User: What shape does this take?
Amino acid sequence: MPGGGSPGQLMQQLQKMQEKLEQTREELTHEYVTASVGGGAVNITMSGAQSCQSVEISPDLLKEADAEMLQDLLVAAINQAVELSQTLAAERLGPLTGGLGL
Assistant: This one.
């Protein structure tokens, strides 16, 4: 075996890595990122597992009643929150997968 390990040792290492991956994925459900656009007019909070936790819209933005602008801000905030969440997950999971693309 490469590295001198037995098949049993390799299986043990893979099992430990799998357990650590699952633990880290669970932890990501409790870690959050917040994207803010429009000078804080729209804030989206998302977990590291890409689950949207909250959407905050400034009451001042709603007073202007510009639906198109609100839609654009929501799209921008959601996309930014997804990107931040994916970056967080990659930072946490990357060292565990060692570039395996998992």
